[in-house]
Q: What sequence folds into this?
C-alpha cells in the first residue's frame, strides 16, 4: 500500500469513527496522532466484528465472517492482512505491543452473540461475556494509550466490565427487541422473575430491583478501575478516565430514572460530555 493510499485509509476510518457518534470519540481525540489512529483502527475492528454478529444473516454466514477475521488477525501478525481495517492495525500492533489474544477474545465474544440469543446468562457467563467483548478492548486500548504499568491491565479488566454492564442497563429495550436479555439469571431468580421471555422480564414489576443490583456491580468495577488508574501515570490514563467518567454519569442517570420508562433513552447532554472531557482530560 502506498503512503497516499494508507493516509486515505486512515482518514476514512477516522471519519467513520466520528460519524458513529461513539462516546469514546472525545477521549480518542486527546491522543497523539499515532496513538489516536491506533484507537480508531481498534474501534473500527470492534464495529466490524460486532456488525457480523448482529446482522440478520444465517448462522453459517456469521461463523464464516468471524472465522475470516480470526484468519485476518493471524495475517496482521504475519504482516500481510487483506482487509483495510486489518491493514491499519499492522503498525499499531507492532508499535504498541497489541496482543493477539485480545483481538481473538473480542471475536470469541461476538461468537457468543452470533451462536444464539443470550437470555439471562448466569453470572459466570455474563462475566466471561463482558471480559471478551469489553475488557479485551480495554487491554488493547491501554497499550495504545501508552500505559505500561501492570495496573493498566487492572484498569482494562474493571473498566471494561463497568462499561459493558452500563451498556446492558441502558439498552434493555433494544436488546429485548432482538430477543436478548443480559441480566443475570441469579438476580432474576432472587426476585422471582421467570426469564425465558426478554419482553416479559422487562414488564415485570420487580425489574428495577434487578437493575439496581447490576448497577451496584458496575459501580464496584468503576471504583476498582479508578483505584487502578491511580497506580498508573496520569497522562496515558486520561482517555480511560474520560470514558469512565462519561459512562459512570450515564449509569447515575439510569439509577436516577430507576428503569421506569424503558422507552425513553438515557443520554448525556453535549455540555456534560464536554465538561467531563475537560475535567478528566486536562486537569
A:
Amino acid at each position: 500500500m502506498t503512503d497516499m493510499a494508507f493516509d486515505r485509509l486512515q482518514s476514512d476510518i477516522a471519519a467513520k469513527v466520528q460519524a458513529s457518534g461513539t462516546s469514546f470519540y472525545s477521549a480518542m481525540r486527546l491522543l497523539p496522532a499515532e496513538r489516536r489512529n491506533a484507537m480508531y483502527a481498534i474501534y473500527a475492528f470492534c464495529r466490524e466484528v460486532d456488525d457480523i454478529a448482529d446482522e440478520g444473516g444465517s448462522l453459517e454466514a456469521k461463523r464464516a465472517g468471524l472465522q475470516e477475521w480470526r484468519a485476518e488477525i493471524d495475517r496482521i501478525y504475519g504482516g500481510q492482512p487483506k482487509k483495510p481495517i486489518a491493514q491499519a492495525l499492522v503498525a499499531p500492533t507492532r508499535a504498541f505491543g497489541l496482543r493477539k489474544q485480545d483481538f481473538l477474545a473480542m471475536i470469541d465474544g461476538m461468537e457468543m452473540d452470533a451462536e444464539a440469543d443470550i437470555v439471562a446468562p448466569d453470572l459466570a457467563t455474563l462475566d466471561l461475556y463482558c471480559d471478551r467483548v469489553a475488557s479485551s478492548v480495554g487491554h488493547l486500548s491501554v497499550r495504545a494509550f501508552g500505559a505500561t504499568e501492570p495496573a493498566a491491565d487492572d484498569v482494562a479488566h474493571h473498566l471494561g466490565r463497568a462499561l459493558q454492564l452500563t451498556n446492558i442497563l441502558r439498552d434493555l429495550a433494544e436488546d429485548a427487541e432482538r430477543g436478548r436479555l443480559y441480566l443475570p439469571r441469579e438476580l432474576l431468580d432472587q426476585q422471582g422473575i421467570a426469564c425465558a421471555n426478554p419482553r416479559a422480564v422487562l414488564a415485570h414489576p420487580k425489574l428495577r430491583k434487578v437493575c439496581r443490583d447490576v448497577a451496584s456491580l458496575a459501580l464496584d468495577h468503576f471504583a476498582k478501575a479508578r483505584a487502578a488508574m491511580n497506580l498508573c501515570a496520569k497522562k496515558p490514563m486520561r482517555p480511560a478516565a474520560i470514558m469512565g467518567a462519561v459512562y459512570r454519569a450515564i449509569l447515575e442517570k439510569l439509577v436516577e430514572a430507576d428503569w421506569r420508562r424503558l422507552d425513553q433513552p438515557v443520554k448525556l447532554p453535549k455540555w456534560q460530555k464536554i465538561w467531563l472531557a475537560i475535567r478528566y482530560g486536562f486537569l
